[in-house]
């Protein structure tokens, strides 16, 4: 048969001869995959002569797959591309440096330093300095006056250091994130047939022409055409936005697209497009984005363009779709962003405001004091030649003011959060938690409820058949095959071997004497193991009836809770084997086999007896019961689509009890959760007796409790009204006591999670973690505050929807995640306690010092050094404390507990009092105490004094010892406990101390320091160590007695959220806080932008409506109108970090434009 393209295949050609070219060009395949449903089918059958012919053109065999010859694979990669989408280039180090330079305080400092530099080189012509006030006390020391530039240069130098450190941190964070991404990508494997063997291949290795085996729960890694399918349904919403599942079959719609999810069924496809040539790849290329970008966009939709961009390449009526989407979005529940980030940003903004006010007052007072002292009291005239000298003074005052601001603004906070999270994420990998979203780690510390699956999470997911009921007899152990009638045995063996996914297998153990390995669905593996125990070989049966011979398959799904396979009988007619949950299948049976294999009638009364005497006792022992049945269709072929008609009048063959033992470490882990104030609920598809038995073994239920165990039906009856809608009040009556939800569907799970999260019963909003492994758990995982997907048993869909992947599927790993989450929270609090003490003291010292002595006792460069060690190094030291078991002995903090507790406030103020007392004593009486020259009221360019060096040194040493105090925030006495376990902490403290010695001894003029004697050093050290003793005194004062202490750093209250966040998909507290002041700003900008666009649009002659529509849409997308195009090109607005908030405020549809009418 000749190909339409003209070259005929030589008669002797194997499917894979390396000489000839492939019968397709890359573009032909791309064009083919762009067609949908019927169009695609016509093109395949008419133009290419069917799927088989496409396979032969691609030189592959539909049954055997590719041979896996490396030369051939390489050639395919060259011709059709590789299956990976190149990630967006990471930001270069220089770009990150540029971003770090955008910090407002740093910019102010740079300007001030440059002005100071320029002025220091300026020498007023002639003009006696005395006339202009005291510029330098010792004119004879010309060198000192020359050295005026040093301070400016030193400030610039410190700014550079701060910028480099920030950029480096961002860079390593980005690198870590990419490493994590590539790990997730490498771990994604797919079932491919090569050389007749089914192998698990990393997704990037798939080439065009590969035969892929697809099954329920897969995320398709490439585009392809269906070769064989059973009951296949695909969720294409990620590409088309259509939520309905699309049925795929050879005769209706064989086109399978990458990035879509298999929701039901199984099948095989031939891969026709990979990487950037697949449908998803094409869209990514269009968006100029790639996987990485997409991840980023999901995580921080706000930084891109305020609202995540839904990709909708297949809809041309963009406008109407978006409007409908908006209506839907308005009704969607709001998901709040990280609690911690919100609290921190709020706090930082408040501190920043306070710092700004303080620094402004400082500058004003300094200038006024100088002006009044010089021109009013001493009555000097303003001489033109003295102007530069005065300006130098003003610049010095300005620099002092900016320095106060720099110290007041805790820019170390975001750094501490990042370091702490990144460190935790790295360490959590060792504890089998693969964190996909950074903030999930910290949210987990606040968790108050965990809804866990039973199978595989609480149990070992190693199923074995331990009891059976066959032919009217209940066997407590597996019967020997001789006991059973040959016909019954034959039906059991065939009914299990044929009616289970052919991907489920039992393989020999990896180690000698180990257990056989179970691959695929574990329940099916248990049944296959049962066949093996009956001394039969299931593989032999499957070889006789290969998958191609199966006439029809109704695959298992959560609605059916059963699976049926239909085969043709050799004698004519059909036979259907069914298996499923026993109570469901038994309802559909009207006959049952007896001992001899004869079918006896099976009435309702018999069924009730059987449930009572066989199924319930098995379930109460924690066994899962499965019923195996069959039905023959001998006369006419029924209509297979009418499932309810087909699945009736079955004949029951046997009921088996499958045991799945509880993991030995689970009861202890659940006890820990209870101690930590976390409620564990079990949500399972098993029947209520099995679930109750397992829950009791795990310790979720104990004998004395009056907790609820409900079945899904009962649960729905209790929470829904007559119309079938869920009522929150009804749900609130149930969930606090509910511990086990059995026979539940994924919707029930979602309803429960949503109900608990939306509930207002307790004083705190509940923070819910959910585990899931199936495709249908996606919605619940997304809705939960933290979604855990199973790394081993989980489907791709579940992993996509999750925040954390449990690489060992074990419940104890969740408890570890809680521990790490709480540790992050505590690390941040430790850092805050330390940071705020420094800030309070430094700001007050600089402020009062400047007002009383005309000069800050701590110079700008010294402040920057303090800021650097306190911010960067301390955040490193305190954010990397390893977690301890004691974290699990307290209740969760909850969403609105303030960051700074009263105990912490006591510590902050207590230490501040000590430090201020010491510093003021040293500033105003230090020279008498140490018997040295006073450093107060020094003229403009005077050399550094020993007096102020001692002040600076003491200040830094006090901070250093206070850093050790800050390791404990709950009022513990022993601040040294476990300090040797944290090497980073020890090295940071030592390193800071050594640097301080070097600065004081050799820092000289740039640091305004001069050498100190040994006795002076010892005094400074002694005062520093006094911090530790003072810390003991403070912790002896009971917090309860200090009623006047207030907490700080509260979360956002519910009312504020709802008021500010209408129409937002995710609520980002941080952003809201920043927004309030900027809305007006941006509204102005927005109007100008719209006006410019209107003008441009008129010039290009495109329709005017589009522009107005864009504005009404609330800037979800920046729609640029292109003349003569059928739809608007969508350009995501890229923005630098400084404008990200701007973009967010502009794009938030509700800001100042609630009703959505266009702004004039």
From TrEMBL:
Gene Ontology biological process: negative regulation of calcineurin-NFAT signaling cascade; regulation of cytosolic calcium ion concentration
Reactions the enzyme catalyzes: Ca(2+)(in) + ATP + H2O = Ca(2+)(out) + ADP + phosphate + H(+)
Top-level taxon of origin: Eukaryota
PROSITE patterns registered for this protein in UniProt: ATPASE_E1_E2
SUPFAM superfamilies: Calcium ATPase, transduction domain A, Calcium ATPase, transmembrane domain M, HAD-like, Metal cation-transporting ATPase, ATP-binding domain N
Ranges annotated as spanning the membrane: 356-377, 397-423, 831-852, 904-925, 945-962, 983-1004, 1016-1037
Entry membrane topology: Multi-pass membrane protein
GO cellular component: plasma membrane; sperm flagellum
CDD domains cross-referenced by the UniProt entry: P-type_ATPase_Ca_PMCA-like
One GO molecular-function entry: ATP hydrolysis activity
Family label: Belongs to the cation transport ATPase (P-type) (TC 3.A.3) family. Type IIB subfamily.
PANTHER family on file: CATION TRANSPORTING ATPASE, PLASMA MEMBRANE CALCIUM-TRANSPORTING ATPASE 4
Subunit structure: Interacts with PDZD11. Interacts with SLC35G1 and STIM1. Interacts with calmodulin.
Described purpose of this protein according to its UniProt entry: Catalyzes the hydrolysis of ATP coupled with the transport of calcium. Calcium/calmodulin-regulated and magnesium-dependent enzyme that catalyzes the hydrolysis of ATP coupled with the transport of calcium out of the cell. By regulating sperm cell calcium homeostasis, may play a role in sperm motility.
NCBIfam families found in the cross-reference section: ATPase-IIB_Ca, ATPase_P-type
Protein's UniProt name: Calcium-transporting ATPase
Organism field: Octodon degus (Degu)
Species classification: Eukaryota, Metazoa, Chordata, Craniata, Vertebrata
Gene that this polypeptide is encoded by: Atp2b4
């Amino acid at each position: 048969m000749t190909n339409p393209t003209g070259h005929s295949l030589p008669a002797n050609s194997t499917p894979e001869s390396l000489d000839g070219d492939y019968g397709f060009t890359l573009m032909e395949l791309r064009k083919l995959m762009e067609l949908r449903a019927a169009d695609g089918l016509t093109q395949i059958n008419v133009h290419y002569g069917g799927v088989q012919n496409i396979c032969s053109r691609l030189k592959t065999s539909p049954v055997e797959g590719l041979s896996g010859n490396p030369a051939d694979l390489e050639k395919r990669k060259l011709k059709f591309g590789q299956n990976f989408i190149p990630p967006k280039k990471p930001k270069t180090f220089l770009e990150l440096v540029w971003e770090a330079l955008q910090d407002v305080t740093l910019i102010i400092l740079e300007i001030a330093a440059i002005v100071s530099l320029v002025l220091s080189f300026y020498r007023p012509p002639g003009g006696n300095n005395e006339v202009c006030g005291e510029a330098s006390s010792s004119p004879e020391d010309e060198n000192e006056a020359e050295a005026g530039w040093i301070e400016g240069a030193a400030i610039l130098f410190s700014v550079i250091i701060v910028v480099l450190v920030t950029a480096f941190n961002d860079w390593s964070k980005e690198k870590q994130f990419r490493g994590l991404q590539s790990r997730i990508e490498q771990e994604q494997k797919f079932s491919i047939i090569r050389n007749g063997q089914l192998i698990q291949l990393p997704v990037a290795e798939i080439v065009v022409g590969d035969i892929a085996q697809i099954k329920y729960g897969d995320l398709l890694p490439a585009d392809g055409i269906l070769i064989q399918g059973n009951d296949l349904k695909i969720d294409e919403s990620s590409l088309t936005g259509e939520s309905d599942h699309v049925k795929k079959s050879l005769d209706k719609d064989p086109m399978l697209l990458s990035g879509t999810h298999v929701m039901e069924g199984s099948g095989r496809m031939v891969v026709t497009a990979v990487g950037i040539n697949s449908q998803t790849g094409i869209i990514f290329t269009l968006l100029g984005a790639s996987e990485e970008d997409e991840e980023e966009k999901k995580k921080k939709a706000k930084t891109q363009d305020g609202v995540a961009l839904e990709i909708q390449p297949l809809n041309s009526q963009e406008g109407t779709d978006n409007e409908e989407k908006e209506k839907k979005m308005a009704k969607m529940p709001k998901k709040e962003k990280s609690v911690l980030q919100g609290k921190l940003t709020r706090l930082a903004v408040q501190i920043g405001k306070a710092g700004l006010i303080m620094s402004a007052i400082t500058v004003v007072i300094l200038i006024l004091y100088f002006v009044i002292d010089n021109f009013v009291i001493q009555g000097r005239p303003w001489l033109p030649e003295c102007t530069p000298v005065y300006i130098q003074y003003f610049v010095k005052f300005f620099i002092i003011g900016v320095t106060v601001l720099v110290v007041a603004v805790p820019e170390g906070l975001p750094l501490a959060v990042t370091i702490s999270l990144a460190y935790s994420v790295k360490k959590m990998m060792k504890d089998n938690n693969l964190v996909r979203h950074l903030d999930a780690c910290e949210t987990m510390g606040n968790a108050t409820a965990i809804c866990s699956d039973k199978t595989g999470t609480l149990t070992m997911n190693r199923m074995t058949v331990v009891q059976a009921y066959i032919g009217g007899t209940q066997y407590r152990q597996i019967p020997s095959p001789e006991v059973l009638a040959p016909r019954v045995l034959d039906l059991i063996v065939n009914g299990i071997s044929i009616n289970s996914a052919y991907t489920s297998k039992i393989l020999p153990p990896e180690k000698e004497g180990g257990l056989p390995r179970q691959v695929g669905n574990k329940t099916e593996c248990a049944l296959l193991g049962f066949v093996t125990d009956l001394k039969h070989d299931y593989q032999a049966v499957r070889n006789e009836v290969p998958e191609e011979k199966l006439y029809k398959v109704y695959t298992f799904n959560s609605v059916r809770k059963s699976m049926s396979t239909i085969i043709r009988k050799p004698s004519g007619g059909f036979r259907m084997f069914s298996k499923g949950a026993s109570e469901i299948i038994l309802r559909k049976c009207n006959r049952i086999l007896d001992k001899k294999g004869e079918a006896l009638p099976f009435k309702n009364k018999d069924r009730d007896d059987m449930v009572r005497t066989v199924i319930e006792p098995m379930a109460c022992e924690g066994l899962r019961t499965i019923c195996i049945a069959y039905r023959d269709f001998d006369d006419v072929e029924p209509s297979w689509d009418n499932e309810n008609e087909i699945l009736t009048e079955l004949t029951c063959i046997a009921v088996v009890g499958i045991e799945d033992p509880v993991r030995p470490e689970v009861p202890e882990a659940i006890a820990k959760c209870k101690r930590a104030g976390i409620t564990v609920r079990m949500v399972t598809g098993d029947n209520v007796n099995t679930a109750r038995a397992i829950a009791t073994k795990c310790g979720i239920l104990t004998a004395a409790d009056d907790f609820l165990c409900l079945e899904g039906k009962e649960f729905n009856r209790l929470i829904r009204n007559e119309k079938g809608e869920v009522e929150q009040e009804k749900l609130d009556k149930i969930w606090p006591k509910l511990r086990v939800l059995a026979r539940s569907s994924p919707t029930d799970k979602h309803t429960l999670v949503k109900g608990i999260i939306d509930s207002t019963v307790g004083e705190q909003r509940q923070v819910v973690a959910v585990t899931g492994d199936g495709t249908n758990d996606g919605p619940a995982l997304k809705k939960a505050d933290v979604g855990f997907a199973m790394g081993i048993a989980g489907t791709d869909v579940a992993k996509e929807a999750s925040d954390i992947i449990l690489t060992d599927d074990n419940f104890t790993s969740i408890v570890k995640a809680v521990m790490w989450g709480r540790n992050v929270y505590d690390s941040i609090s430790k850092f805050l306690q330390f940071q705020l003490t420094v800030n309070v003291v430094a700001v007050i010292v600089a402020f009062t010092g400047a007002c009383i002595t005309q000069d800050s006792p701590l110079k700008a460069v010294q402040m920057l050094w303090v800021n650097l060690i306190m911010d960067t190094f301390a955040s490193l030291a305190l954010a990397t404390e390893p977690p301890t078991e004691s974290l699990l002995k307290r209740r969760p903090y909850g969403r609105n507990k303030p960051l700074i507790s009263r105990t912490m406030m006591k510590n902050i103020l207590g230490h501040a009092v000590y430090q201020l007392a010491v510093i003021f004593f040293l500033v105003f009486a230090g020279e008498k105490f140490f018997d040295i020259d006073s450093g107060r009221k020094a003229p403009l360019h005077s050399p550094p004094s020993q007096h102020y060096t001692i002040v600076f040194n003491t200040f830094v040493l006090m901070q250093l010892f206070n850093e050790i105090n800050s390791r404990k925030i709950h009022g513990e006495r022993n601040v040294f406990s476990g300090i040797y376990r944290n090497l980073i902490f020890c090295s940071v403290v030592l390193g800071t101390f050594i640097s301080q010695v070097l600065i004081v001894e050799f820092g000289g003029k740039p640091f305004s320091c001069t050498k100190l004697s040994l006795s002076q050093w010892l005094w400074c050290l002694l005062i520093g160590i006094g911090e530790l003793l003072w810390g003991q005194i403070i912790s002896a004062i009971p917090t309860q007695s200090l009623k006047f202490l207030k907490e700080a750093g509260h979360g956002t209250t519910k009312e504020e959220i709802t008021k500010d966040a209408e129409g937002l998909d995710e609520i980002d507290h941080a952003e809201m806080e920043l927004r309030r002041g900027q809305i007006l700003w941006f509204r102005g900008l927005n109007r100008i932008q719209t006006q410019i666009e209107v003008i441009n649009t008129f010039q290009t002659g495109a329709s005017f409506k589009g522009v107005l529509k864009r504005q009404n849409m609330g800037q979800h997308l920046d729609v640029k109108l292109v003349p003569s195009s059928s739809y608007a090109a969508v350009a995501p607005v890229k923005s630098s970090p400084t404008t990200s908030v701007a973009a967010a405020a502009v794009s938030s549809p509700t800001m100042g434009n609630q009703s959505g009418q266009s702004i004039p």
